[in-house]
Amino acid sequence: AVDIAKLRGQSGLITIDPGFKNTGSTKSAITFLDGEKGILRYRGYNIEDLAENSNFLEVSYLLINGELPTTDQYEDFSDRITKHTLVHEDIKKILDGFPSVAHPMGVLSSLICSLTAFYPNSLDPNNTDEEIQLSMVRLLAKMPTFAAWAYKNKMGHPVNYPDNSLDYCGNFMKMMFSLPSEKYEIDPVISKALDKLLILHADHEQNCSTSTVRMVGSSQASIYASISAGINALWGPLHGGANQSVIEMLEAIKADGGDSKKYLEKAKDKNDPFRLMGFGHRVYKNFDPRAKIIKKAADEVLEKLGINDPILDIAKELESAALNDQYFVDRKLYPNVDFYSGIIYRALGIPTDMFTVMFALGRLPGWIAQWKEMRENNEPIGRPRQVYVGETERDFVSIDKR
Ligand code: ACO
């Protein structure tokens, strides 16, 4: 075994591992996953059990604190979050500055980062554990408010304030969908499906956005700045943005006559940059356990809501064609969580460019737990090396001689 402490500060052999496919960046006790067997556990609990029996706030507590809460602990945690759902009125002025075409992910990351200005104390790396706990509660409490406001900004609607008589998902849905002129009723089927989706997205060890949160946090930046960076990392189409890309791809296939086989061939063509969005995963090489749960939830929601969506038929055709195609079988490319999450979000009436925001809402407790672990482990600043491949030393040439 290598004694890492002894290696600290030493230079020597540099390994190169593009995309960090085989490089562990940390030791972590939060999430276990086995990509070959399709196992995902938070703090030792199987994702299937948590999705079936728990709720998002309980899972958030588990991820952050390491244990499932007792009734008293749960009530205290939930009450604290409820108390902090309101945001400073001046944050609305920041929101008003965004044009309605602004992507809600950009709005969300900016509003989260703005918390550094409203709570400047968070910039102090010597914050006490209580102060850190308060920042975590604020994040969990205010993120749904910001997410719903980002949507309202896009729609040109007045924002809704939090309704603290509702649970986490109910409050979010009301802020998203209710209009001053209408009475808004929360559909328990939709609320439950949403809660399940948030649980499934809550953590996924050292993925791109989580590694970003830990990397930014390792410089002792504020937790708000670190989470804001994580939101930006999640935004990309190869990460959280894939759920939006899936629906856009399915819509494009429909507009082009609905021939899913044609797109399957395109995805296999190495001269064509097109990829089948929602297929493949860096770690899961047999199946994505979250995709299994979500697929069932998608079927339930669509049946309950009586939705018959032609996009869904294309998704099913594409899935079965890919599962029987040698290219996809050889490369172990299966539908991932994002292939189905977009379908549920669409059925719930959530617009496409809010999908990744929904993912961010779910991933938040994971980011928080990972940031907290990084801090508690007193991890050194993240600073990868490189293998230099540029010019060797050369003489400066003045501009008139170039
Ligand atoms: N469609 C077609 N071919 C694919 C796809 C796809 N969706 N995904 C991978 N491949 C092929 C690659 O072209 C490559 O083929 P080759 O060996 O012949 O060159 C092989 O499969 C391996 O692909 P890599 O890109 O090396 O795999 P990697 O682990 O780096 O990438 C990723 C994983 C980014 C998820 C990739 O599968 C992809 O781009 N999928 C589509 C985007 C997507 O759904 N992202 C969501 C990920 S889940 C999440 O973030 C929650």
Automatic annotation (TrEMBL):
CDD domains with a match to the protein in the record: EcCS_like
This protein's UniProt keywords: Transferase, Tricarboxylic acid cycle
Gene3D superfamilies noted in UniProt: 2.20.28.60, Citrate Synthase, domain 1, Cytochrome P450-Terp, domain 2
Residues annotated as catalytic: H281, D338
UniProt catalytic activity: oxaloacetate + acetyl-CoA + H2O = citrate + CoA + H(+)
Entry's Gene Ontology molecular function annotations: citrate synthase activity
Source taxon at top rank: Bacteria
A GO CC annotation given for this chain: cytoplasm
Pathway(s) it belongs to: Carbohydrate metabolism; tricarboxylic acid cycle; isocitrate from oxaloacetate: step 1/2
Protein name according to UniProt: Citrate synthase
Species the sequence originates in: Cyclobacterium qasimii
Gene name of this polypeptide: gltA
